[in-house]
Amino acid sequence: MIRKETLTILTNLDLGCLNSLRKIKKQGDQSWLENKIYYGRRTEMAKMLFKKGEFRILSDDLGKLSAAETNQLIKTAGTTCYQTREVSRKTPEQFVQMLQNSGHYAMLEHSWRTVEVSSASGRFPKEEIGFRLYKANNLFCITERPFSLLISGNLRMFSEGWIKSGDVFICSIHHLLAQENPVIFRQRGNFKLPEDDFRVLINPELGSKKEILVHRAMTVEFNNHSRGMTHETVRSRSGDEKITSYAQESTRYVDYAKRGMDLDKFQIRFVLPYNGQFDFSQIISFSVDGTEYSFTPQRFTNLIEGWYRELRKKGLKPEEARQWLPIGLKSQIVQTYNLNEWRHWFFIRTGQRAHPEIRFSAVRLLEEVQKRIPECFNDFEISQDGQSAVYKGGDPLV
To answer: What is the distance of C-alpha 53 from the center of its chain?
Structure first.
C-alpha cells in the first residue's frame, strides 16, 4: 500500500509519473517514489561517492618553477577556494594582483624560493644575518653551510619579512626576487648588496638529504574527499623546519546552484565512510519523539539535499544554508609543504590507526613520491596489501 501522505504530493505530477505510480502500487514497491520525488517535483538523487578520493601533484619542486609557472600555480590553488577554476577569465598575473589588492595573501604561500647568501671576502657574520632573518619572519627555514646560509620560504614570507623589518639585507633579497617576479614582489626602492661583500644566489643546488627535506617544497591537490578529511589534514601545522599552507574549497561561497543553475537540478556529492564491511543499501530504522522512521543511506541523504534546496529557495544564502550540510560533503584541498613536513604527514597519515579516508590517498601518494624522490622517502615501508605504511627511519622528529 502507498501511504496517504505519499499520495498528497502527487497533485503536480504529469501523466507519465502517475502511470509509474500505478505500476509501483501494483508491484507494492514505493522506493522509486520516495527517492525521486520531493514536494511535488521530480529531482536528481544526491550522488554518493565511495573510495573515489584522488590526488594530483601540481609540483614536486616548487622552487624550480619559473615566475610564470609560479603565478599559474597560485591561481590554481586560489580558484580551488571558490571553485572558479573553469570560469575565471583573469590571467595568472591579474589573479595574483587581485589577491594582493584584496589582502588575500594566504594564496601566495603556494610558492617557494631558496636563496644562498655568502661573502666574497670570507667575512660573513652568519649568526647576525640569521638573527636578522629570524626577526623578519620566524618561519624562514635557515641552514648553515661552512661559508654561507641557505634561506627558504614561500613568497609571502619573503615579502612580509621585508615589509615588517625594513632591514637593508632583507630588502636586497627582496629586490632580487622582484626582478624575477615583479607581480608578487612589488618593488620598493632600489637596494642591492655591496658587491665586494655579500653575494646572493637564487635556487642553489641542494646537497644533503637534510637540505633537500628542508629547502624543497611540493604542492598536491586532493579531490573527491570529504569535508571531514580536509578538517583532519589542516591540523598539520608549521613546526621546526616544517612549513604548511592550504587552499580549501569553501562552502561559504560555493553554491551548488551557481551560475544560474536551477535549484531543482543541481546535485550535491557526498562521500561515504571508507568502510567496506557496511551495507549502504540497508534500511535503518530509528525513533525520534515517538515517531518511527526508516531510511536507506541514499534516501536520508536525498532528504538533506532536498532540505538544502528549500532553504535556498526560502532566501537563505549558501553560507547560511550550509549549516545543515553534513561533514561528508565532497570537498577539494590544495596542500603545499616542504618535504620535511610531507614526511611528518606521511608518518601520521599512513599508519594503520590513521583515518581510513586520508590513509587511502596518503599511501598512494607515498608510493608516487618514493618513485620521484626516493632519497627522501625510502625509509617508509608500504604494507604488502598497500593499505598502510610504517616509518623505518630513526628521526625522532619525523
So the answer is: 12
Burial group, residue 225, by CB count within 10 angstroms (0-12, 13-18, 19+): buried
DSSP-derived secondary structure letter, 274? S
- 228, 327 Cβ separation under 8 angstroms: yes
Which residues of the chain fall below pLDDT 50?
A: 1-42, 195
SS3 25: helix
Identify the CA nearest to 232 among candidates 370, 353, 141, 365: 353
User: Residue 242 has what DSSP assignment?
Assistant: B
pTM over 0.70: yes
Looking at the DSSP bridge assignments, the partners of residue 114 are 152
b/e map 142-164, b = 16+ CB within 10 Å? bbeeeebbbbbbbbbbbbbbbee
Residue of 282, 46, 246, 66 lying closest to 156 (CA atoms): 246
Query: Strands of 198-202's sheet, edge to edge?
Result: 141-145, 148-153, 113-119, 198-202
Any alpha helices (H) in the chain, and if so which ranges?
4-7, 15-27, 31-36, 67-82, 92-101, 126-136, 155-165, 168-180, 209-215, 227-233, 297-313, 318-321, 339-349, 356-372, 374-377
How wide is the angle at C-alpha 323 spanned by C-alphas 329 and 74, nearest 5°? 55
CA distance 383 to 18: 55
For residues 210 and 338, the answer to whether their CB atoms sit within 8 Å is: no
* CATH number 3.40.50.1000 is the correct assignment for the domain at 44-85+216-398: no
pLDDT digits (tens, 9 = 90+) for 64-114: 999 999 999 999 999 999 999 988 999 999 999 999 999 899 999 999 999
**Can you tell me the distance from the alpha carbon of 130 to that of 132, in angstroms, rounded to the nearest whole number?**
5
DSSP string, 344-373: HHHHHHSSTTS-HHHHHHHHHHHHHHHHH-
